[in-house]
Amino acid sequence: MKLYDSAELALRNLRESFLRNSLTTVGISVGVASLVAMLSLGIGLQQMAARRLQKSGLFDTVVVTSRRDFRGFNREQERNGPSPDESPALDDIALQKMQRIPNVAEAYPDIRLITELRYEGKQHLTMVAGLPFSAKNNDAFDGMQGSFFSSEMAQEVILQKPFAEELLGRTPKTGEDDVKVAELGPPLLGKELTMRYAERTPSVEGASSPKTSDVSAGAAYSVVSREQKLKIVGISDLDPDSMRGQARARVFLPLKLAQSLHLMQTSNLRETSDAVSGVPTYSNVSVRVSSPKYVQQAEDAIKKMGFNTFSIIDATRNLRQFFAVLDLFLGIFGSLALAVASIGIVNTLVMAILERRREIGIMKALGASDSDVKGLFFAEAGAMGILGGILGVALGWIIGHAINFGTNIYLKRQQFPPENIWSVPWWLVAGAIAFSIIVSLLSGLYPASRAARLDPVQALRYE
Amino acid sequence: MNSFHPSNSTVAIQTENVCRHYKMGETLIRAVDSISLEVRAGEFVALLGTSGSGKSSLLNLIAGLDRPTSGTVVVQGQNLATLSREELAKYRLRAVGMVFQSFNLIPSMTLLENVELPMRFAEVDRDKRGALAEEALRRVGLIARLRHRPTELSGGEQQRASLARALINQPQVLLADEPTGNLDSHTGTEIMNFIREFNEAMGMTVVMVTHERALAEHYARRMICLADGKLVGDATNSAATFQETRGTTL
User: Fold this and answer.
1) Among partner residues A5, A365, A457, which is closest to B92 by beta-carbon distance?
2) Does B118 fall in a domain?
3) Given A13, A367, A460, which is nearest B89 (Cβ)?
4) Does B197 reside within a domain?
5) Is the entire prediction scored with pTM above 0.80?
């Protein structure tokens, strides 16, 4: 029998026992819906985590250090790379080379120093770091009090919440409730800080100014003590610098401004002792690629240049693994309902065989082959699978929407920004319908072969 | 008058020591017990016997619905005992048409769909199917009932539809199992006249199971009598009324 004839007869038979077949189909659709809802939630959470992490800037950044300064982040790099003496200096020339690597969005030096900040006559010693303007889209600044730097050279700073608390003398003691970042904004935003710093200026041999104090006779530069007034424009709760561990900055100023100030950093002290050259070098450089997928490629290119590299791309692998396991578990739980529904299909079709025993006998007497009968029952199971799958995807979509909607209401009440925790990609729609059809056909396997095996003489005698 | 002479034709059905034995608990039922017979192409044969004589069991063996325990059944040159399940299905589809006492139309289908059904199995094109089924129903006088379901029809109409369905794939052998058993005598005659017409006009071999001797004598050219699964009589029926007597009530 041709496929469309099987399909036509199957649909006719399904219509004949409309209520029973509809209930079975609803059972399948509930199973598919639970599968879709579970997996769409898992996928949504994965996408949300990926979005968050990508916005954090951690996954598209390679931290580069010179082998002169560090032993490297792993032994393999240490073994395979050039020796510290042969390693090139991490200077502006190296920076420009890194910028020319394909898919590198930007390469910028890490400028950070411990310095003194004065606020309302009080002195505070803290870590200050330059922040590239591209960090404007960083997730850490979502929900920040105030705003990001107005320009790349703006004389402005963004404070980390703990430093803002320190400036106001509101650092919570152990056991005390956390101060909300919103409370720190009004008293600090728009106020001025004064940063005292050491400026590194190229020295002219033999010359000396009254403000200059030569640190070393062999150095190709001088150090001058300076002050810079900076306006507080933002207070951030989340930490964009979390990757740095102990070297985390608590105050950020625009990177371009920091570069123009020629801040004296710790690495410069080593240079003076080594008396290398007058060209400034950096302790480390951050290389940001256009997409996390180019991290490995950029890392390889930078390693070839003789530098040490570090990225946390491996962490994304672990993340993917975690979500794969989560999706698997959610899928298994979602499939349980479908498994129950598949028993419904078996039941419906076995009942249909009992009811249509004589009909099967007639068909066989008229020349229907075993495969015709089997095909007919398969088509019925498949039709229920297709219908159940389509209905189930629609139902799952509605459930997912409802969960997302409810979650966002809750997040809003908790004063969190809205989040899309749910996603139904096209492959999930196609996969769920295909899975529903496969499960239905598998469920139809036993009834179909049982129907095909019926003895026509016995079946014709059946009343 | 038809000029068809079965005596000059080839063998359509041949059974050789065919047996069909069933086991019911410890008892062996010999439904068909070593029957050998030959039916020539174009013959109208009646299988006569009382209930349980084995006539329907023999018909089922000839129809390929059942397999013999031993012996051979050869129909149109095919030894049914050697055919696979799929080949037997093809044989039932192409070589034989069946009519049953209880009509066996599928109640959820209209008459047209019932008649179309064997053509679906034969994979006849959709476009041709409708026209062929309509023509077959027209021949049995049911053109006005195409869209009716079997339950909306009389017994005679149902059996006519069943006849149309049995012949739709143009088989050479028509097997009828008590075709008038559920009908009144007038309607039964009507059906028998159709069967005789197919036999005489189309040269179709007819094997009809009946327990009514009068019916067999009236229509069949040959009567084979069975008792307890054995062949107990095989006679040519010279008294059978032919084309000229069509319409005679039983």
Assistant:
1) A365
2) yes
3) A367
4) no
5) no
One digit per residue, the tens of pLDDT, for chain B of length 250 reads 444 445 456 889 999 999 999 888 888 889 999 999 999 999 999 999 988 899 999 999 999 999 999 999 999 989 998 899 999 999 999 999 999 999 999 998 999 999 999 999 999 998 899 999 999 999 999 999 999 999 999 999 999 999 999 999 999 999 999 999 888 888 899 899 999 988 988 889 999 999 888 889 889 999 999 999 999 988 887 666 544 333 333 3
Kindly report, residue by residue over A419-439, the tens digit of the pLDDT. Answer: 888 888 898 899 999 988 998
Local confidence band at A268 (pLDDT 50, 70, 90 cut-offs):
low
Q: Rounded to an integer, what distance in angstroms lies between the CA atom of residue B13 and that of residue B80?
A: 11
Q: What is the ipTM of this complex?
A: 0.90
Statement to judge: residues A307 and A404 lie in one domain: no
Same domain assignment for residues A299 and A327: no
Interchain proximity B86–A371, CB inside 8 Å: yes
Is A364 a residue whose pLDDT tops 90?
yes
Beta carbons of B98 and A359 less than 8 Å apart: no
C-alpha span between A167 and A187 (Å, rounded): 10
- For chain A, the domain total comes to 2
In this complex, the residue of B66, B89, B104 whose CB is nearest that of residue A368 is B89
Print the domain residue range for A302.
60-312
> In this predicted model, which residue has the larger pLDDT, A235 or A84?
A235
**pLDDT of A250:** 85
CA distance A381 to chain B (A): 19
A16 and A113 share one domain: no
Q: Is the pLDDT of residue A315 over 90?
A: no
The CA distance from A113 to A39, in Å, is 47
Residues of A with Cβ-Cβ distance to B123 under 8 angstroms: 1-2, 5
If asked whether residues A85 and A208 sit together in one domain, one would say yes
A383 and A326 part of one domain: yes
When mean pLDDT is compared across A34-38, A119-123, A177-181, B140-144, the lowest value belongs to A177-181
The distance of A437 to chain B (nearest Cα, Å) reads 25
What is the domain range of residue B164?
Answer: 105-170
The structural domain count of chain B equals 1
Same domain, A247 and A373: no
User: What band does A206 get if pLDDT is binned at 50, 70 and 90?
Assistant: very low
Q: Of A280, A312, A344, which closes a domain?
A: A312
Q: Is B30 a member of any domain?
A: no
Clarify whether residues A186 and A327 are in a common domain: no
Q: How many residue pairs bridge chain A and chain B with CB atoms within 8 Å of each other? A: 69
Among B29, B98, B102, B108, which would you mutate to test the A interface (most chain A Cβ atoms within 10 Å of its Cβ)?
B108
CB contact under 8 A, A457 and B66: yes
Query: What's the rounded Cα separation, in Å, for the pair B107 and A19?
Result: 19
* pLDDT bucket at A49, cuts 50 / 70 / 90: confident
- Contact in structure between A54 and A415 (CB atoms under 8 Å): no
- Give the residue from A283, A312, A341 where a domain finishes: A312
Is there a domain that residue B4 lies in?
no
Q: Identify all chain A residues contacting B90, using CB atoms and an 8 Å cutoff.
A: 367, 369
Mutant choice from B61, B86, B106 vs A, greatest count of A C-beta within 10 A: B106
Question: A368 and A293 in one domain?
Answer: no
